[in-house]
Amino acid sequence: MFNLSLLLKEFREQRWLLWTGTILISLVGIFASLTWLWTDDLFGMLDNFGPELRNLFEGEMRFSMGSLTNYLWTQWHPKNLLQMGTLLAIFIGSQSVASEVNRGSMEFLISRPLSRGTILGHKILAGSIIISSVVWISTLVLLT
C-alpha cells in the first residue's frame, strides 16, 4: 500500500543526506577530472620498473590515461562512484531506522495502521530515490 505522506516524511528526514551526498560525490568527481592533468608524471615512474613489468603496465596505463574520457571512465564508474555510493547507502540505511529510534517516534510509527513491511518499503523507496538522484546529479556535474 503506497502512502505519499509516509514517503514525504522519509524524504524530509533524509534530505540532509541528499545534499551532503550530492556535494561530496560531486566534489570527488571534480577532483577526479582535475587529477588527469597530473597523469603525465606517472609515465616517468615506469622507468623504475623492469622491462617485463613496464610492458605489462604501460599498455593499461596508455589506455586508461590516454584521453580524458577514458581516464574519467576508469576513475568514476568502477572506483569513486561505486565506493561513495556504497557508503551513502550504508548511511541512509542506518540513519533511516536509527533516527526513528533515537527520537522515540518508532513506537508511534509502528502503532499506526500501517504494516511494518509498508513502513520499511517506504524507507527503502525513499533511500533508493535519494541514492539514484545523488548518482545522476554528481555524474552530470562530472560531465559538465
**Shape descriptor:** elongated
Average pLDDT across residues?
83
Name the helix and strand elements from N-terminus to C-terminus, one letter apiece.
HHHHHH
Q: What's the helix count? A: 6
Provide the gyration radius in Å: 21 Å
Provide the helix percentage: over 70%
Plain-language structure description:
- With 144 residues, the protein is mainly α.
- It is 85% helix and 0% strand.
- The protein is built from six helices and no strands.
- It has helices spanning 4-34, 40-45, 51-65, 68-103, 106-111, 116-143.
- The longest helix is centred in the middle third of the chain and has 36 residues, at 68-103.
- It is elongated.
- The two termini are 40 Å apart.
- The mean pLDDT is 83.
